[in-house]
């Protein structure tokens, strides 16, 4: 985006494609600033400047949205590590930094809420506690001027519906009812993404396309899937969701090579050892940049309007995705150009680089083909 930022809902109504970088939690785990397992974003409290830098990185790589790092930044998770008294500080700090980076780069700022870890259907107390977790995070998001709220990684339809209801009840921010064709929506727009595991149904037994259809009908501005599955196993289900929904659909897979045998990144195995790779050995099953481009092309062809990547995302992938959508983010200045490599990019028999042919032979060995 350049120039003045369009209202988020207007952009959706105009049919604009919105690119969204997620995956901060895993990336901070990979970099050694967040404990894998509990996945609590303590980095916001301990190293806030790094969080701001990561917001910058993804904006630079082409994300249209800066999502505040409040994933698992809720009461239950902070209680687990004895930092409950820093709950508000964590949320406000993550939101304020996201707002600043979004404004500096002319992006939208999204607040995030997620599965609560206390939700239980048919348990009144659990439902009350879950709603309270949502309420406080949503109210901070409104006060810190979020453009919209993401409710993500729900595996229960019931919890996703409760999140949506909470956003509608407590997220009364930049209300713009006049231009909305999603008549039930009030207050801040809600993007609700569910996580699909092996079966194409939620853990409370609603087929995922039907769950998305209901959430859309209840007023979510965007519905779809994030996390859990990689591009290869998410796309077929996204196609089914697209058939039953009227509005914009979200697809934010994890950039790992999931398959029919291993539909989720949690279930992936090391092709060499046959051992489980989640969460520490996932590097051996990462998508290639070309995989990401293929995913982007397919999403474009299907007409997915809210596209991104979740856990495993990094700047290089996101730039690839953005470029596949015809964007030129700031990071494109540094896109790969092997033609300018002094050895591998030199033409055969180049008189200006007499060593190039020899070095190429050394580098490629017997694997040399017409592309090398
Ligand atoms: Zn994820």
CATH fold category name of the largest domain: TIM Barrel
CATH class of the largest domain: Alpha Beta
Number of strands: 8
* Tertiary shape: globular
CATH architecture of the largest domain: Alpha-Beta Barrel
- Going across the biggest sheet, name each strand in turn: 1-8-7-6-5-4-3-2
Structural class: alpha/beta
Q: Tell me the CATH superfamily of the largest domain.
A: Homocysteine-binding-like domain
Strand content: 5-15%
Low-confidence stretches: 174-185
Q: Tell me the number of helical segments per DSSP (H or I, 4 or more residues long).
A: 13
Cα distance, first to last residue? 36 Å
> Which ligands accompany this protein?
zinc ion
- Please summarize the sheet with the most strands: 8 strands, parallel
Explain how this protein is built.
The protein is built from 13 helices and 8 strands. The protein has 372 residues and is of the alpha/beta class. The protein has 2 domains: 8-336, TIM Barrel (Alpha-Beta Barrel); 337-372, no CATH class. The protein has an 8-stranded parallel β-sheet with strand order 1-8-7-6-5-4-3-2. It is globular and about 75 Å long. The two termini are 36 Å apart. The site of zinc ion has 5 residues, from loops.
Question: Layout of SSEs?
Answer:
Blueprint: H1 8-13, E1 18-21, H2 24-31, H3 43-46, H4 48-60, E2 65-67, H5 75-80, H6 87-105, E3 108-114, H7 124-143, E4 148-154, H8 157-170, E5 190-194, H9 208-217, E6 222-226, H10 231-244, E7 249-252, H11 289-302, E8 306-309, H12 315-324, H13 356-364
Parallel strand pairs: 1-8, 2-3, 3-4, 4-5, 5-6, 6-7, 7-8
The chain binds zinc ion.
Domain Hcy-binding: 6-325
Binding site for Zn(2+): 227, 310-311
Protein name: BHMT
């Amino acid at each position: 985006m350049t120039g003045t930022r369009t209202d988020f809902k207007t952009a959706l109504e105009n049919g604009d494609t919105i690119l969204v970088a997620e995956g901060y939690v895993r990336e901070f785990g990979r970099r050694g600033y967040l404990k894998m397992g509990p996945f609590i974003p303590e980095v916001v409290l301990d190293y806030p400047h790094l969080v701001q830098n990561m917001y910058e990185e993804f904006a630079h790589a082409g994300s249209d949205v800066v999502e505040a790092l409040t994933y698992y930044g809720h009461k239950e998770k902070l209680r687990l590590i004895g930092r409950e008294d820093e709950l508000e500080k964590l949320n406000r700090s993550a939101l304020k930094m996201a707002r600043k980076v979004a404004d500096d780069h002319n992006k939208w700022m999204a607040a995030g809420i997620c599965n609560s870890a206390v939700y239980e259907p048919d348990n009144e107390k659990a439902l009350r506690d879950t709603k309270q977790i949502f309420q406080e995070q949503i109210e901070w998001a409104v006060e810190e001027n979020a453009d919209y709220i993401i409710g993500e990684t729900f595996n229960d339809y019931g919890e996703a519906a409760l999140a949506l209801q909470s956003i509608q009840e407590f997220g009364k921010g930049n209300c713009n009812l006049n231009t909305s064709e999603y008549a039930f929506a009030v207050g801040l727009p809600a993007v609700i993404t569910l996580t699909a595991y092996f079966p194409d149904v939620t853990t409370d037994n609603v087929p995922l396309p039907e769950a998305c259809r209901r959430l859309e009908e209840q007023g979510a501005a965007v519905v779809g899937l994030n996390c859990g599955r990689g591009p290869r196993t998410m796309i077929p289900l996204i196609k089914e969701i697209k058939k039953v929904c009227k509005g914009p659909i979200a697809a934010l897979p994890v950039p790992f090579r999931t398959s029919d045998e291993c539909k989720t990144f949690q279930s992936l195995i090391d092709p060499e050892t046959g051992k489980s790779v989640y969460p520490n050995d996932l590097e051996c099953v990462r998508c290639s940049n070309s995989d990401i481009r293929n995913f982007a092309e397919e999403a474009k062809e299907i007409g997915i309007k809210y596209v991104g990547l979740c856990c495993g995302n990094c700047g290089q992938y996101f730039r690839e995705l953005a470029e596949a959508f015809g964007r030129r983010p700031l990071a494109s200045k540094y896109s790969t150009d092997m033609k300018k490599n002094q050895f591998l990019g030199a033409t055969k028999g180049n008189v200006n680089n007499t060593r190039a042919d020899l070095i190429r032979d050394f580098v490629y060995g017997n694997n040399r083909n017409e592309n090398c």
